[in-house]
């Protein structure tokens, strides 16, 4: 297939491109050319900015995977240009779209955040992150109908992606893991390679709708046990709420965010690798001299 990736050279995006190339797809990248410009030298590039996507008006693609859609204005512009130039549009959204942060077991049909009255569509703030993802999903559905999918994920861990607290770095360097969250806190996450494969799968199979692309809910303590098993003789984990590592509210006001129902994604083809395998690969990647990037937000 002919695929257009918006972004594609950073964190999760590079895994999407790698997976697409491994499957034999013809990939075009659209980005500013400022992040890892030497990556994927054999791939066609269209240089441009999301705020001015007119350069895309000269092409046609079987599928689009949008990895860089934050501002509502920019996503609206891309959708307008690509509406009649692509077969399917897959949007990287977020679990931050849900109105409740305490309700367990939310499916994709749970209530979403409302757009704040008077909020700007051309300016990004963290307060608008969740509402912007909701608004972008809505405008893409209005533009493409059943030719679009929205993939909602939270913590993404794996090579070229931010560390899970300091866990990967600590295990790779024989240091104690630290976490300021409660040991019994619910948590969900996904390996970047599994998420990339799912994004590609939805696009090539033209599967519509929103999906909670997350792993199973487990406690932070159980997850820590699985990660510590990836190396011999790990140090005990420091659960002090005073450490500056992986803060989550202790009062339960965010527990529902990591207790989502991922059934629909699993039925659509999401495959999840085991925690120990994720940890082992990440630790090995760091031990090879790689440095995890800073969190994207």
Architecture blueprint of SSEs:
Elements: E1 2-6, H1 12-22, E2 26-31, E3 44-47, E4 61-66, H2 72-82, E5 86-92, H3 129-144, E6 148-152, E7 155-157, H4 167-172, E8 186-187, E9 189-191, H5 192-205, E10 209-212, E11 218-219, H6 220-228, H7 263-268, H8 275-287
Parallel strand pairs: 1-2, 1-4, 2-3, 4-5, 5-6, 6-10, 7-9
Antiparallel strand pairs: 8-11
Helix pairs in contact: 1-5, 2-3, 6-8
Report on the architecture of this protein.
There is one protein chain. The mean pLDDT is 95. The relative contact order is 0.15. The protein has one domain (2-287): 3-Layer(aba) Sandwich (Rossmann fold), CATH 3.40.50.720. The chain has helices spanning 12-22, 72-82, 129-144, 167-172, 192-205, 220-228, 263-268, 275-287; strands spanning 2-6, 26-31, 44-47, 61-66, 86-92, 148-152, 155-157, 186-187, 189-191, 209-212, 218-219. Helix 2 (72-82) links the parallel strand 4 and strand 5. The chain is 29% helix and 16% strand. It is of the alpha/beta class and 297 residues long.
């Amino acid at each position: 297939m002919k695929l257009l990736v918006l972004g594609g050279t950073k964190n999760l995006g590079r895994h999407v491109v790698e997976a697409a190339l491994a499957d034999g797809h013809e990939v075009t990248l659209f980005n500013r050319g400022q992040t890892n410009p030497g990556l994927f030298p054999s791939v066609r590039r269209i240089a441009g900015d999301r705020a001015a996507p007119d350069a895309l008006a000269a092409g046609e693609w079987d599928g689009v995977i949008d990895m860089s859609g934050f501002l509502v204005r920019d996503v609206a512009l891309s959708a307008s240009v690509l509406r009649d130039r692509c077969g399917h549009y897959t949007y990287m959204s977020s679990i931050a779209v849900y109105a409740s942060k305490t309700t367990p077991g939310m499916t994709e049909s749970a209530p979403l955040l409302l757009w704040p009255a008077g909020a700007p569509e051309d300016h990004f703030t963290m307060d608008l992150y969740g509402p912007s993802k909701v608004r972008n999903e809505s405008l893409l559905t209005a533009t493409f109908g059943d030719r679009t999918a929205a993939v909602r994920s939270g913590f993404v861990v794996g090579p070229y992606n931010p560390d899970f607290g300091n866990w990967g770095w600590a295990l790779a360097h024989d240091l104690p893991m630290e976490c300021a969250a409660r040991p019994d806190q619910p948590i969900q996450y996904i390996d970047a390679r599994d998420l990339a494969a799912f994004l590609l799968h939805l696009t090539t199979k033209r599967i519509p709708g929103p999906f909670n692309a997350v792993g199973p809910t487990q406690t932070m303590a159980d997850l820590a046990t699985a990660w510590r098993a990836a190396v011999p003789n790990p140090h005990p984990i420091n659960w002090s709420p005073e450490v500056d590592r992986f803060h989550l509210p202790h009062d339960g006001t965010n527990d529902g965010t990591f207790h989502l129902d991922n059934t629909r994604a699993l039925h659509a083809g999401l495959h999840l690798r085991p925690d120990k395998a994720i940890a082992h690969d990440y630790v090995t990647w760091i031990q090879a001299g790689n440095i995890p990037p800073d969190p994207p937000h």
